Amino acid sequence: MSDYEAFADQFAAHAEGSAFNAHYDRPAVLALLGPVTGLRVLDVGCGPGLYLEELLRRGAAKVIGSDASQRMVELARARVGENAELRVHDLNEPMPWMSTGSGERVVMALTIHHLERPRVALHEAHRVLTADGRIVISTVHPISDWMQLGGSYFADEIVEDTWNVGWDVRFRRAPLEALVADFKAAGFVIEDLVEPRPAPSMAAAFPDVAERLEREPAFIAFRLRKA
């Protein structure tokens, strides 16, 4: 079961307007994703459907979302209605319900660090993408994990922590080279890499956070294509 099941409703309310989600991650990921009009897009780790809603607004022809949390999928359904295909699915396992070459874009926003078997999800993303498809991935910046957790920057391990207001989570901390090795093993190459800066809207709503994120990264995002 997803860690997020225990606090799905709290997370949904938080993520809609939070500094790190609304003014940092989503702008960066959507910019890397580019135009989606007429495209088939898979959002893996879709959470409460914030990306799904935006993809539909931007004209995606078909939107599919999956998440390991039943409650997150319920929240996503409440947000997008019947306009997207939604499934409860553990991304550590294959996706037999997705046809090979059936999508032009995959989004994996702030999800990969929660997976114990990330290469499974990456291999499946590679399989379901068309030959000229792209996947956009965002995750916690390895430098940020090292600054927060200490120890060796080169540690590659599953750790437990408490985020926000008592959200107990498990996630992987790993150096950048380990992430790149996972991409390569799945058959991807990096087309673009972004260390996001705060969106202009953050300065007005969260000036202290914006000032910090102008000095040090919290997330990192990649656009990958098939090798």
UniProtKB/TrEMBL annotation:
Name residues in a coiled coil: none
**Source superkingdom:** Bacteria
- InterPro entries, per database record: Methyltransf_11, SAM-dependent_MTases_sf
PANTHER family per the record? TRANS-ACONITATE 2-METHYLTRANSFERASE-RELATED
User: Any idea what this protein is called?
Assistant: Methyltransferase domain-containing protein
Recorded source organism is Epidermidibacterium keratini
Spell out the molecular function terms from Gene Ontology: S-adenosylmethionine-dependent methyltransferase activity
The alphabetized list of GO BP terms reads: methylation
Where the record annotates domain Methyltransferase type, the positions are: 42-137
Q: Which UniProt keywords apply?
A: Methyltransferase, Transferase
Which Gene3D superfamilies does this one have?
A: Vaccinia Virus protein VP39
